[in-house]
Amino acid sequence: MKFTCQKDALQNAINIVSKAVSSKTSMPILECILVKAEDGGVKLTANDMEMAIETAKIEAEVKEEGTIALEARMFSEIIRRVNGEKVSVSTGENNSAVINCGFSEYKIMGQPGDDFPEIPSITKQEPYKIKQKDLKNLIISTIFSVASDESKPTLTGELIEISEEYVNIVAVDGYRISYKKAAAVSSPEPAKVIVPAKTLKEISRILLDGEEDVEIYITENHILFDMEGNILVSRVINGEFIKYDQAFTNEYKTRAVINRSELISALERASLVSRDARKVPVKLDIHPDNIIITSQTEMGSAYEELNTQTEGDELKIAFNPRYLIDALRAIEDEKVAVQFNSPLSPCIIKQEEGEEYKYLVLPLRM
Amino acid sequence: MKFTCQKDALQNAINIVSKAVSSKTSMPILECILVKAEDGGVKLTANDMEMAIETAKIEAEVKEEGTIALEARMFSEIIRRVNGEKVSVSTGENNSAVINCGFSEYKIMGQPGDDFPEIPSITKQEPYKIKQKDLKNLIISTIFSVASDESKPTLTGELIEISEEYVNIVAVDGYRISYKKAAAVSSPEPAKVIVPAKTLKEISRILLDGEEDVEIYITENHILFDMEGNILVSRVINGEFIKYDQAFTNEYKTRAVINRSELISALERASLVSRDARKVPVKLDIHPDNIIITSQTEMGSAYEELNTQTEGDELKIAFNPRYLIDALRAIEDEKVAVQFNSPLSPCIIKQEEGEEYKYLVLPLRM
């Protein structure tokens, strides 16, 4: 194998596949990136056996076709730090690779490309399409409420539901439900699939913020995302996802419209009177024109007053402030609506108008 | 105690004293900041028993004089996060303090101010003076070569030598010596003192980059730095510092003048062919017009070529690249001179011209 390409293009491709490189594994080849030079270009692949990423072809002058698997960290650091516009990579004896760039020459020991695990093959039907920025947003706005506990495997992923017009994503961890929807660009038929949280986290880092589409192919055991030729294939989680839709009732006894960033700041401050800020419950005292937020520990107490527009009954209710802050950060609008029924029933957080984002959280007993 | 002051001024003062708050201690009061309101202002103090910091007086409207010790982390986080221009602090029953700012009210439990350890009293004679930015620079350029091993206590600090015209600082760790000097603004008489590295690290974070002076007072057991009224008092290390001056010989058999940042990059890259970049020796092959830098491990090999102007003999010599990089980062000029005598004698790194900065490092046996 022997090729020359732009250093920046190679570095960018390494950054993309790095997300599927195993960091802890008993199979050293999974810590490698597969480099494959073929007619007209070079492709990189990484595979941690849960998900695999293969880049689009990088333009390269290929003098000799071939493959080699190179330890990802070292390969990536060398390419990142060498100084020059173009870089050449060629294979030598004993599965070594020589990297040349400017006045630098690096030789690194690799493994035969043939030993690298194949990525699952997916028969491509007509794809689902959604804007890359929309899918990114769906993931970022909900992923924090995926269950970390492995006892209910389906809850360690997010449910993606595709209808004719919409793509919904849902994450549930036993204390709360995050839901967000966006328009589908193209949907051949309705579909439901549970995708592991790790896959979604990594894909959200590859997705662009622009108007480009991502194409999605779903099979019984796999899901494939195609982002301008960069391909990510992941296993899916089999099983029934929890029925979440009835939980989002539209009835409420109290509804408060609040400035989102003021509420975040007040909750963060009220969490401070403790050695472990994640363990202080905060109490909300909802009045017609304001909310009083208080918390109390053996170390001190906090009192915060926020203006609101409230309809309905006055109410006292307590929460883990972290669970409120997560949802408030996921909303883009500056005003949020918070709906309550009683001190012990779930509270629902939404945008002031619209149903794109919905979040349900259980209160704490006071 | 009861006062009102600008939030920003109080936050700034907290940032300064925080550097002397103990993080691990069996005496909880050392995790506190002492707040003292007196005629016309407020002072904060922290003391970890190795060093103490007392701020200049913050302008405040003091309604009632008094003191209280408040847990540093919580006090600091609350002041940082409350929203408002002015903040009021007052003491209540059972050593509590109430903090008011905007629509927020925080009550935190404290300890009696009288329990807080006194800072050592220093009889002030005529001070030594040096520009704050110069002292900062002296510390940053040398502190990395202080010994971490406690077996030679004097080497866990830096030697500060003040003559009529200069202030020198020296750090020695058994493999290398860092030396830097700057002009003294005022020096009543020659002095030598060994200051613990931790003190110097913290003081370098308080010192400003401007032309202001720092005043220094030295007694048998303590050193006091006065930066515009913010005072840091530290113990000094008693004992004889190593005789370092003869080590810096001006004789050499080989002298190479090299571009500093190119050399840093080449050394960093050459360290990459290993799982632990700090453990790869690099070999320097010094020719009349260039230096070849190589390294080799079971994982691969590196080859780098750098242009130089060399006088004297050709030479092969090996180093821990980390030790070269530390010194190269400490030099501000773009060209550096590296002087060698033999593959087993120390190498000296300097600016191309001038003697303000000198660094000596032992080679590795090849």
Quick recap:
With 366 residues, chain A is α+β, with helices and mostly antiparallel strands. Chain A has six helices and 26 strands.
Keywords:
about 375 residues, nine-stranded antiparallel sheet, eight-stranded antiparallel barrel, 6 helices, elongated
Descriptive account of the structure:
Two copies of one chain form a homodimer. The first copy, chain A, has six helices and 26 strands. With 366 residues, chain A is of the alpha+beta class. In chain A, a hairpin with a 5-residue loop joins β25 and β26 (357-361). Chain A is elongated. The N and C termini of chain A lie far apart (68 Å). The mean pLDDT of chain A is 95.
Which stretches of chain A are low in confidence, meaning pLDDT under 50 for 5 or more residues running?
none
Write down the overall geometry of chain A: elongated
Largest sheet of chain A: 9 strands, antiparallel
Show the largest interface.
A-B, 30 and 30 residues
Strand content of the residues of chain A, in percent? 35-45%
What would you call the quaternary organization? homodimer
Share of helix of chain A, binned: 10-25%
- The Rg value of chain A, from CA coordinates, equals 25 Å
Distance between the termini of chain A: 68 Å
**Global mean pLDDT of chain A:** 95
Number of strands of chain A: 26
> Strands of the largest sheet of chain A, in order across it?
14-11-12-13-26-25-24-18-22
**Estimated structural class of chain A:** alpha+beta
Number of helical segments with 4 or more residues of chain A? 6
Lay out the secondary structure.
The structure is a homodimer of 366-residue chains.
Chain A: E1 2-6, H1 7-18, E2 32-38, E3 41-47, E4 51-54, E5 58-64, E6 66-71, H2 72-81, E7 86-91, E8 96-101, E9 104-112, E10 128-131, H3 132-140, E11 157-162, E12 166-172, E13 176-183, E14 191-196, H4 197-206, E15 213-218, E16 222-227, E17 230-235, E18 254-259, H5 260-270, E19 282-286, E20 290-297, E21 300-307, E22 309-312, E23 315-319, H6 321-330, E24 335-340, E25 347-351, E26 357-361
Helix pairs in contact in A: 1-2, 3-4, 5-6
